[in-house]
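Rotation project, supervised by the postdoc (A.L.). Task for the rotation student: set up a whole-complex structure prediction and record inputs and outputs verbatim in this book. Inputs entered:
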Amino acid sequence: MTPLTLAAASQSPKVHLTAQTRIIAAVLALFFMGLVLELIRRDKLQERFSVVWFVAGLGMLIGAAFPGLLTLVADAMGVRDTNVALFSIVLLFLLGLALNFSVTMSRQAAQITRLAQERALEGAREQAGSAENGGEPKRERLES
Amino acid sequence: MRTLVFIPAWNEEDSVVAVIGGVRERLPEADVLVVDDGSGDATAERARAAGALVASLPFNQGLGAALQTGYLHALREGYEFCAHLDADGQHPPAEVARLLEEVYADRADLVIGSRYREPGKAESDDYKPTLSRRIGTGVFRFFLTLATRQRFTDTTSGMRAANRRVMALFSERYSPDFAEIESLQLAVREGLRVEEVPVRMLERAGGTSFLTPLRSAFFIFKGMIVLLVGQFRPRHVGAGER
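Outputs recorded:
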């Protein structure tokens, strides 16, 4: 090892956050969780999709309260720079979430297709039925 | 022997009536269903006026979903055999009748009408594909043959005939956006007998192909991924029994 890398390694990686930054981060986290809650309240977000966002908000809050924790995480990952640890964790989290949404979308697309097909075939059956009854579907519908 | 001929149609008001008439003439014993894939024009009305049964999808779902609707109808209404052809007039109904002969005789479960099976023969010469289509056809032919270990020449043909085994399979599993090619791979993997029959196809009566060079390249790329993934799909055991 060169003296330079040794010097860098001995420099203990600490997270330096001023009280002001921490307060802003905490407020942002709380605001984010409040937003999620409000979206649920207005029926714009279903509860089952909200859990992951609450966890994310909680993570932000914890990070603001105990910035030292990030050092532990970075150490556990074997990363010297806490910023790299933070960004890679967030990136992986978002990547996983995006993939999860694609899976959900695929399932819903298949469901929508089947629903459309069922409706189309129902229409065809109605047409076949009305043809047998003398071709007056509208009157039939009124009577029933 | 009950047969359903279904015609997937998306904005084909100019040609659909003639196609229905042709099928009626050549296959008088068959019932005709037009699957209207969310057309914005008078396709459904004209087809109904021409005496066909019409299943209208509430919005455009793509060819795969439209074809699956036809297979689903055939399966549920208890048809023994079914066939489908394009609504744009490229597929002569007389050739569909020849495909149906193959499944009637139980020589295959699924029969594909191929434009390219025997080039040089008079019946293949009417069809002149564009360059990008020829490249795409070549690529898909190669990879599908590799994947299925069975020779296919016309992988994207929309003229097919099938029996109930195929209906059962396709009504459950049919790729929505890569229907033609993946369905062949699926059928072979499930142990069904798939056969190609040379047919004559006509130039499209109106409209242009949706394939521009860039789209073709994307189409080919997507097709290769679909085929690759298809090789790793789990097999259904029940569908292949006979």
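Student's summary: Residues 12-80 of chain A form one domain.
Supervisor addendum: The CA atoms of residues 127 and 135 of chain A lie 8 Å apart.
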